Every structure is written in structure tokens, then in C-alpha cells.
Amino acid sequence: MSFRAVLAWPLAALALLAASVCASWAQDYPARQITMIVPFAAGGPTDVVARVVSAHMAQTLGQPIVIENAVGAGGTTGAARAARAAPDGYTLITGHMGTHAAAVPLYPKLAYHPEKDFEPIAQLAGTPILVLARKDFPASDLKAFVAYLKANTDKLNMAHAGVGSVSHVSCELFNSILGIKPTGVPFNGTGPAMNALVGQQVDYMCDQVINAVPQIRGGTIRAYAVATPERNPSLPELSTTAEAGLAAFQVSAWNAMFAPKGTPEPILARLNAAAAKALDDENVRKRLLDLGSDIPKLDERSRAALGRLVQSEIARWSGVLKTAQN
Ligand code: ASP
Description:
single chain
């Protein structure tokens, strides 16, 4: 027997042993509490989506899922932390179109890569973007709002959840269509940014529908349009950007769950199945739909579909932001 062959046998045995330890470990999963990192402040869209879906997943999995809001740098601080966590299924993250796509072209030294450092688990909810302003903003419709923004850019500021967040990149696109560069005011999430908008400390924001529905219904902020082709069933009075004269502004965010790269396949499969079960639950659906979000269709629920989405979205936002920032 050659030296190579002598060496190959113990190595193969070791690999077999590792695989069977992994399989039995995955079978017992989850044996303890799971931590779900939310890379933005409590009360914002990511936090709400993560809490609604995780609460149901915890019932299916038979272990608590504890939300940990790890904020900063447009969600990239929490995402970097999740990327470095042990790949054992006990630390997960609810990320989105910002942390797992748009942040890539915006941070040349991003401490993680959405594809190389994460395993996709499942898409959780789609969240159309709305154009919002403080309630006393002096414009009655989107056309007047756009005209006012163009004429008063230097005096106005735009709230967002940090560079690379959904609210930031969505409004970057909006501003580039208008040809304006207002002052940005970053927050640790659009939960606190919304409080500032309600308190009239900031002028406008592009945010995910989830955060805005209760405020719009309560009359504490102004909404000018929803940036999707169809009106939103939760806000039937609100025009689409196309109806309101700004068809070029079209954005709807996606939110999704990820695990650190190397998490065993059986664990990922269990998590994907638990997420799918949550999305089929009547109460979970009602909660998400009432807040204006949409629920991923059956063909969008696989791990592979999320992997493809991340890949195409990194490419799309790299192009959009390059054009927007020039
Ligand atoms: N909506 C935020 C964003 O702009 C994140 C959040 O607070 O959930 O990305």
C-alpha cells in the first residue's frame, strides 16, 4: 500500500465519524434556546418581521427564540456578528435587502459577504417602500412634495437606518431620480427614525410599509405614495408612485433569515420548514398582511430561491447605487 493510501483510510474514517456526529447533533436540534440577531433597533420593520415569524417557529421547534437587537452601521454590525457565530443553528439573523445585498457595493471593507459567509434559510416577508414625510410637510401630494424637495434641498433632511439599510438605499434611488442630495440623518433603525419623523425632527424618509401603516392610519405622518406597481391593500387610499407621477421610483424590500456558513444541512432544512409553517399560519399571515407586507409565494420559499435572490440583488443594487451616486 502506498503512503498516500495508508493515510487515506484513517482520514476517510474520520470524515465518516464527523458526518455521523453531525447528523446525530442535527437530529437533537434544537436542544436549547436559539438567538435571532436583528441588526436594527426594536420596533422597526426588521424587528417586527423577525418577532412575528420567530414566535411561531419557536412553537414548531420546541425551544425559545430570543431576539437580540445588535445595531449599528446600517445593520452591518449585527450581520458581521452573525457571520462569525458558531455554525450550529443556535445563532441566526433576520437580514434584508440592505444587509444581505445593497451593503456589498456600499462598504468596500464589509466584514462579511452575504453569499460566502451565510447559509440562506428562508424569505420571510416582502415590504413595499413608501415615501413618507412629517405630518406638517407643506405639500399635499407627491408632485408638490417633489417640487418642494427640489426647491428646498439645502433646508431639508432625510432620515434613514444607516448607510446600506433599506431606507437609505431606497431614498438614494429616490433622490437620484429627483437629482437632489439632501442631508441624511442616520438612526439605528427606522423604529427610532419613525419616532423622529412623528416628532417632526426630520423631514422625510423612504421606509418599509410595516413601520408606517399604524402611523399613517393614526395621522401622525404624511404618506405620498407606495413605490410598487399596485396599491397596497392595507393602505387602499394611497397612490402608487406611477399614479402620482413618479413611475421611475419602484422599490419593494425583502426580509429573510440566514445562518452562519457551514451550519449543517439537516438544521437548515428544519429551520426552513419551520419558517414555511409559520408563513402558512393564519395568525402570522394576518399580522404580516395587516401591516402591508406580502408573504413569499410557495416557489419563493426554498433555501435555493433565497440564495438566487441574494446573488441577483447584489448585482442589481451594485448597478443601481453606482448610477444613483454619480
Ligand atoms: N427599515 C430599516 C431599514 O431601513 C431597518 C429597520 O429598522 O428595521 O433597513
